[in-house]
Design goal:
185 residues, alpha+beta, OB fold (Dihydrolipoamide Acetyltransferase, E2P), five-stranded mixed β-barrel, globular, SNase_OB-fold_sf, nuclease activity, nucleic acid binding
Length: 185
Amino acid sequence: MRNASLREAAIGHKRLFAHAITTALAALVCQAAIADSVLLGRVVGLADGDTVTVLDSSFVQHKIRVAGIDAPEKSQAFGNRSKAHLASLVMGKPVEVHWHKKDRYGRVVGLVMVGAVDAGLEQVRAGMAWHYTAYAREQSAEQQVSYAAAEADARLNHRGLWRDATPIAPWDFRAAKRQAHGSGP
């Protein structure tokens, strides 16, 4: 009798272990699905040089924060030019957004592709945005190299915002603005 109850307990533990493994694998598959999410649509609006609005086939609008870049704020030098350049790349065009997360404002953060063109990379190449190195770990190794090289080339050739003798990074601009308004660092 005792051996039978030990066997039943062992079988119960094996089932519990198998269930835990299955649950863990399902969670990993869900995370992988999120990491590989693709949104298809048409760009119908721009907030600035790194944020667009995409209308999907169900007529739902999605705010998209272009991954890998940080563009000048609207009230900052080159802010309007950056927005205009991004508009020339994406406005009214069909896009494919490869995304993996949403930011604290609920915007999808993703790679915005117009055909084979990476809109974020083109913003950096034109000197209309910085490579946002604080989030580079979220990019592939190839993207990190491409974006860094594009920024270095834009700086070297004084394209876009790099014409300015002392361009202020958007994250520094926002921090100074918060500090001036007493919001702290």
